[in-house]
């Protein structure tokens, strides 16, 4: 592999290639190369971003209550302010990543994340803490969009599902390791140790980002001029790419269902007396996800999107159904594994679909559109579900969510699954 290290490209002009970034699937001499230095470094940077997020999201609410005598509601906002900042950033992150350059925006975002992590240490009041959380979420949204775009630019089209699945394993590992590490640091040491650990993690991500070199895509001058014209003016399509809105709307509904799991799992565990099972929930989630992503990405490439998405929906519906009736720890652990096979399968599968729906120069916008709609679902879900929970209890709430997954399946069929290209693998397409 030959990788160009030049990253100073004039604004509005597409860089020129050295490595074939998105090779076609047809008639190659062998499997297109998937694991490259760019892919590996991007994987690690993405993992570190999510590790920082999960270390803090599980500890911030209690920190605000203990340190600043905040109410539970305000403490919850201190934690979720991160999501607010990320959601606002997603409105423009894809556009700026596409216009200003993926690597440039990644480095700027990683610097913002480092600054935010450093500010947790001196933050001496609740408003300051909330401001830091907003800043951190803002930087995180840009960083995640940019690094995912870089990774997707080097995944061969013929191995899109497989490569996206491998890349998603970093998020899965962070899902398991982040909360456990955060709770360990707070429980065994103190919050100062937690903040120093997140700062070191953020700095390491920035250092790796400096060494990340994005392979450049060769384009003729005429193609560059056409793309420049398309990029000239900011429009609504730069916030939400029309081609990604269908699969994004599907993931918005899925996000509401997932919000019912991550938001209320601890309260559910105390109510049902299954705290041990809840503690192992995300471990089971990560293990199931790790095992199946080694297989399902290849299946998506060979057999099409539908087989993977419908499998994920069935598993997710079963997981929510189990939670609706569970009263023993082992049942909650099984639900965790099924959630890993369900939601953990759907997100990378949807990302592969979104990436294939947009042209190469709109990768950033495509990815940010999917993540924006997903964030809306996860953010709005707890508000709606909280009302349902207060009125009917956990059993009814999780039963309703299982039914909502069935609705999501119908929506998926309507917007994507019924089309011929969703029924056949990319390896079968010329």
- Assign the structural class, choosing from mainly alpha, mainly beta, alpha/beta, alpha+beta, or little secondary structure: mainly alpha
Tally of strands:
0
List the secondary-structure elements in sequence, H or E.
Answer: HHHHHHHHHHHHHHHH
Rounded to an integer in angstroms, the radius of gyration calculated over CA atoms is: 21 Å
Number of helices: 16
CATH class descriptor of the largest domain: Mainly Alpha
**Total domain count:** 2
* N-end to C-end Cα span: 25 Å
Shape: globular
Strand content: under 5%
Assign the CATH superfamily of the largest domain: MFS general substrate transporter like domains
Strand count, sense and barrel status of the largest sheet are:
none
What is the architecture of the largest domain at the second tier of CATH? Up-down Bundle
Keywords: Membrane, Transmembrane, Transmembrane helix
Protein name: Transporter YoaB
GO molecular function: transmembrane transporter activity
Main location: membrane
